[in-house]
Amino acid sequence: MNYTVIGGGVGCARFVKGLREHVRRAGQGGRIDVVVNTADDWWVSGLRIAPDHDSLLYALAGVNDAERGWGRAGETERVSAELAVWGTAPDWFTLGDLDLGTHIARTAWLREGLSVSEVYRRLGARWDLGVTLHPATDSEIDTHVLLADRDPVHFQEWWVRHRAQLPATGFAQRGIERAAISPGARDAVARADVVLIAPSNPVVSVGPVLAVPGMRQALAGTPAPVVGVSGIISGAVVRGMADACLAAIGVETSAEAVARHYGARSAGGLLDGWLVDESDGDAVAPLRDEGIAARAVPLWMRDPDTSARLAQDALELASTLR
């Protein structure tokens, strides 16, 4: 079986770890590909930073800081403090020393002319991830936040510095009209037996992946079922500030509303199936009426067992849709 996951960040990392665990426990083998959002990447102190990719890389390698939810475990921050003193990095965006090693390696390879896809391959080769990571695109498509009362700012400034408190009216990926789906992402969708939309931020993690030219066409053309997992439980985000992102584009913070935002594939949207939490069971029937095969299951990923069970539930739903 070939499993292709689309998303980015901590929610995606937890889900992919659960999928990897389920595949290992089932003993049936299988290839797991992850198409990763690149639109929250940016430049800091001359270094290319890739938060969604690195969250996945570190979590799958088992070297992430699980308490903070980002970066490497056992970090020090001496270099970041020096960069702030020199004024080459904002003091509100802290980079650990081990993390900086990743960014320096990434930037060195990019400056040598390697593609983002090849950089992903080299970074992933350090550990036995059991998963292959692919950028959605090899082009730079950094997200900028459109604000009601001032000029746009980079997504990271809005997210990290301002904690998504500045009133936003939308999000734009600069240069995305000239981008193209990466070869690895295209092939991952084409060979998939199941496509899974991770419980990532639907606006700034999944949305930019879907907006890459060629991506929606690839997903529309795959014979594989497309099943998504809600990152909203009982009207609240599981992690982060996705509610602020949803509000900015006029979407209610609910599992049902996010499913409608993605849309039914039978009606030109994305989804064949959608998992909601048991607490959101009332959404199942209305979504089914709209062409999305919804199912209510426990969504909280508290440990390897619950994460693996969620992945199994997603695959079981997909098996009914083939």
Summarize the structure.
This protein is an alpha/beta fold and 322 residues long. The protein has helices at 9-26, 51-61, 78-86, 97-111, 116-124, 155-161, 183-191, 202-211, 215-221, 242-248, 255-262, 284-289, 304-319, and strands spanning 2-7, 31-36, 42-44, 47-49, 132-135, 143-147, 153-154, 168-173, 194-197, 226-229, 232-233, 236-237, 273-277, 293-297.
Defining key terms:
Rossmann fold, 322 residues, single chain, seven-stranded parallel β-sheet, three-stranded antiparallel β-sheet, alpha/beta
Explain the overall architecture.
This protein is an alpha/beta fold. It has a domain at 2-40 and 129-140 and 175-319: CofD-like domains (Rossmann fold, 3-Layer(aba) Sandwich), CATH 3.40.50.10680. 41% of the residues lie in helices and 18% in strands. The protein is built from 13 helices and 14 strands. The strands form 4 sheets. It has a 7-stranded parallel sheet, with helices on both faces. A hairpin with a 2-residue loop joins strand 3 (42-44) and strand 4 (47-49).
